[in-house]
Design goal:
112 residues, 2 strands, two-stranded parallel sheet, 38% helix, mainly alpha, elongated
């Protein structure tokens, strides 16, 4: 989900129903073999790889300020990670929304 560290940060983890069903059937195989040194995101990536779940990569989905992606103006971003101040998160989100509105991409505002 991001081109940083092991390329799978916990702020955005997307799985298909089938992948999770397979995980719940086989997760016991991971418990004793996969370490937890990287947190839940590292564990899930290592476990899913270990039980044969394939994955797709899209490095533009997540804006992570620690990864210095700096892509608040990218209309493709769907998640904004680790802004401790609401105002900082809102600024980044608003920039992305404005970029989406001004791009050739279809923009649909979800109902609140």
């Amino acid at each position: 989900n991001i081109n940083f560290k092991f390329q799978f940060l916990g702020a955005l983890e997307i799985f298909t129903r089938e992948a999770l069903e397979h995980y719940f059937e086989k997760s016991g195989e991971c418990a004793g073999k996969v370490g937890h040194q990287g947190g839940e995101d590292y564990y899930m990536e290592a476990c899913m790889d270990g039980i044969g779940i394939d994955h797709q990569t899209d490095f533009k989905l997540l804006n992570d300020k620690y990864a210095a992606t700096g892509n608040c103006n990218d209309p493709w971003v769907v998640g904004f990670h680790f802004y401790k101040k609401v105002s900082s998160w809102n600024e980044c989100h608003d920039a992305a929304v404005n970029s989406a509105k001004n791009s050739n991409m279809d923009y649909v505002k979800l109902e609140e």
